[in-house]
TrEMBL record:
Domain Radical SAM core stretches: 23-267
Name the UniProt record assigns to this protein: Heme chaperone HemW
GO biological process: porphyrin-containing compound biosynthetic process
Cellular-component GO terms for this entry: cytoplasm
Locations listed in the record: Cytoplasm
Organism name: Kocuria varians (Micrococcus varians)
Task of the protein: Probably acts as a heme chaperone, transferring heme to an unknown acceptor. Binds one molecule of heme per monomer, possibly covalently. Binds 1 [4Fe-4S] cluster. The cluster is coordinated with 3 cysteines and an exchangeable S-adenosyl-L-methionine.
Length: 414
């Protein structure tokens, strides 16, 4: 797992500077709840997750919902003390790890605490990530009855040998079954795919896309496999046990994904995310509101070990291991271990990096002179949309989405 960021020590009472809440009335607030438990640790994963064998003595999954609920209450007290106006939650997202390793009623108890502490805004999105092998029809009945609106399924691939390289344990046939159970309860559904796994052919990837489309979901995420230092898969590549990731192969697979998804009625709204009009909702309504809050640089509070939070240019992050996290929460002490206040330069860079990835793009008028001057050349290269630029926005073309990082560097004059 990666080391935590460098930063200033976080205050034990969690107190926020006035700047973090000065514009709160004009900003949305979301809640991310990290569930750090997994049955098996996948070889490509560098998230802050643990099997019970890794955790050892002193940590129990049975008590986690109570500890997370305590941090939710703590979050509200910190925001109140800072003078932030009350804000109902724009979105709630249970991620991990594997949230559905916990009983559904424990997830519901955390959601009820969020509702009690903050309230949910009208139409608020509530998402639970799910492993297809850790759910039953009753799981979704309980979640839907408590106000969950959306389930995001970690499918990754429909091809057994690709799943084996990723060390995913679910059976491909379980994914459509689980999606069907969720849809039967009226829940929105998303399937998450990974492309570019060593040994995955273009035909394998096309089979996974076809399987995802056959599920009639509202939303598809397709992410290129990124090999992070410290993961088992990175070590296997260094030893030559599996081939290196091929960027050209990944580009071909992204193009194929976009073509098939577009043909099936999906619209891209972020470089790696597509939604469609389905089940009585528009494509815009079926976007992930929670992830859009990140890309639009809104405010969110991260609950749980290793979770990150952000409030208008102030970021902080919690202790990574569940045991010290639990001890602090139970003592009424902030579990945050580090914090940073972003300077104007960092905020500008992050605004450009995030904003260029979404369909609405960046307001050209908000770019610095060097960025505005770069727009014409990026249009000539076919990476930015000319008509959108005339309307005042820097929006990636289909070809530009493959070059999003290069576009960002040009706009920032790097």
């Amino acid at each position: 797992m990666p080391a935590q960021p460098e930063g200033d020590p976080a205050p034990s009472d969690g107190a926020l500077p006035a700047s973090a809440v000065a514009r709160a009335a004009d900003r949305t607030l979301s809640l991310y709840v990290h569930v750090p438990f997994c049955a098996v640790r996948c070889g490509y994963c560098d998230f802050n997750t643990y099997t019970m064998e890794q955790l050892g003595d002193g940590v129990s999954r049975d008590d986690y919902h109570d500890d997370a609920a305590a941090e939710v209450r703590f979050a509200r007290s910190v925001l109140d003390a800072a003078g932030a106006p009350p804000r109902a939650l724009h979105s709630v997202f249970f991620g991990g790890g594997t949230p559905t390793l916990l009983p559904a009623r424990e997830l519901v108890s955390m959601l009820e605490q969020a509702r009690e502490s903050f309230g949910l805004a009208p139409g608020a999105e509530v998402t639970v990530e799910a492993n297809p092998d850790s759910v039953t029809p009753e799981t979704f009945e309980v979640l839907a009855g408590a106000g969950v609106t959306r389930v995001s399924f970690g499918m990754q691939s429909a091809v057994p040998h690709v799943l084996a390289v990723l060390e995913r344990t679910h059976t491909p046939a379980n994914v459509p079954r689980a999606v069907g159970w969720a849809k039967a309860q009226g829940l929105g559904t998303s399937v998450d795919l990974i492309y570019g796994t060593p040994g995955e052919s273009v035909a394998d990837w096309e089979a996974s896309l076809d399987a995802a489309l056959a599920m009639d979901s509202d939303h598809v995420s397709a992410y290129s496999l990124i090999i992070e230092d410290g993961t088992k898969l990175a070590a296997q590549m260094r030893r030559g046990e599996v081939p290196l990731v091929d960027p050209d192969d990944q580009a071909e697979k992204y193009t194929l994904a976009d073509a098939k998804l577009t043909s099936a009625g999906f619209q891209w709204y972020e470089v790696s995310n597509w939604s469609r009009a389905a089940h009585g909702r528009s494509a815009e309504q079926n976007r992930s509101a929670h992830n859009l809050a990140y890309w639009r640089n809104q405010d969110w509070w991260g609950i749980g070990p290793g979770a990150h939070s952000h409030s208008d240019g102030v970021r902080w992050w919690n202790l990574k291991h569940p045991l010290p996290y639990t001890n602090r929460v139970r003592e009424g002490i902030s579990p945050a271990v580090g914090r940073e206040t972003l300077d104007a330069e960092t905020q500008y860079v992050e605004h450009a990096m995030l904003g260029i990835r979404i369909r609405e793009g960046l307001e050209i008028s908000g770019l610095r002179p060097e960025g505005r001057r770069a727009v014409a050349g990026l249009i000539a290269d076919g990476w930015l949309d000319g008509p959108a630029a005339l309307r005042g926005s820097a929006v990636l073309t289909d070809a530009g989405r493959l070059m999003a990082d290069a576009v960002t560097r040009r706009l920032l004059d790097w």
